[in-house]
Design goal:
This protein has 146 residues and is mainly α. The chain has helices at 9-20, 25-46, 52-74, 77-97.
């Protein structure tokens, strides 16, 4: 679901519909599901609720992972290798074209695209190192208080 809302989405959407909608009639159903997924992710990214986007992205990722697993399990062995190659190609396409859509870190690193809260309690220590740019948006004003 990394590609939703990025430049990679159009090609990803078409490829996924072709892979999962193997009989032609199902392609339209898959396209509708993909569009609903993109809409759900867009709606969650606009919500103020903490973690909404991560929850929706996780649920959608698991759902689509299940669909791809079912596809591979249901295919005759003679067609499975071709489907695996197509999926690998799709993953590479998303990696190349949606690279700015998420955070990544090397070995031993930590990356996040949402809020990160670090808190030391009971005499403990918390530390972090930032490499690269950081954007801090001012807090949104709270409700008017009388």
């Amino acid at each position: 679901m990394t590609a939703a809302g990025t430049d990679a989405w159009s090609g990803t959407r078409t490829t996924v519909a072709r892979l999962l909608g193997r009989d032609g009639q199902r392609e339209e159903v898959v396209l509708q599901r993909l569009d609903q997924t993109a809409a759900d992710l867009a709606r969650a990214s606009g919500e103020d609720a903490r973690g909404a986007l991560e929850r929706v992205r996780g649920a959608q990722s698991r759902s689509w992972e299940t669909r791809f697993t079912d596809l591979l399990q249901d295919l005759p062995e003679s067609e499975r290798d071709e489907a695996v190659r197509a999926l690998r190609s799709l993953v590479e396409h998303v990696r190349q074209h949606a690279s700015g859509s998420g955070a990544s870190a090397g070995t031993g690193g930590f990356a996040a695209t949402g809020d990160v809260i670090m808190k030391a309690t009971n005499g403990s220590v918390v530390a972090g190192v930032v490499n690269g740019g950081v954007r801090v948006d001012p807090p949104k004003p709270g409700p008017v208080q009388d």
